[in-house]
Amino acid sequence: MKALIALQDIDLIQQYIAGDQKSFEFLLKKYQNKVFSSIFLIIKDEDTSNDIFQDTFIKVIDKLHQGKYNEEGKFLPWVLRIAHNLCMDYYRKNQRQGIVSNNNPEFDIMDALEDHEALVDFGVQEEESINILKYVDLLPDEQREVIILRHYYDYSFKEIAEMTGTNINTALGRMRYALINLRKLIKI
User: Fold this and answer.
1) Distance of CA 56 to the CA centre of its chain
2) Which end of the chain, N or C, is more open, meaning fewer C-beta atoms within 10 Å of its C-beta?
3) 83 and 136 share a domain?
């Protein structure tokens, strides 16, 4: 196991494809907490999150064996993207509805950048973050995801865009609309 620690993700993947099951077990253990936490923060149900977590790694295994993983030093974002897609599939099946969609052609990226720190405007403290989460749960899926990834996991907008398969302007726009919706929800 000590030898595995020194290896890069790509080396572990190559060893796994060559038949070394321990390499994949090591990758799974290395990232399982981050992947499960990302799923759980979106889904909010432990059993469903466990199911999606398992589906994520089944899909990862399938894609690896099919040769559909292109190493760019981004194994974790690739896995998180698969998990994200499975979460969105789950919500599509259950037809959850949102509050405000990004249908404004006049969207200005500078507004989104200014709103980026808007949670501070709510006076959010560490102990109050749980109270805010009940409002975050009411947001449309895409907006909730950006809030969670940015403010609870501290991912950059560039990383969020990569994980969600969008561009940075879309990620910023989703944040803007999420903050607008949170303001409305908190004032109710």
Assistant:
1) 13
2) C
3) no
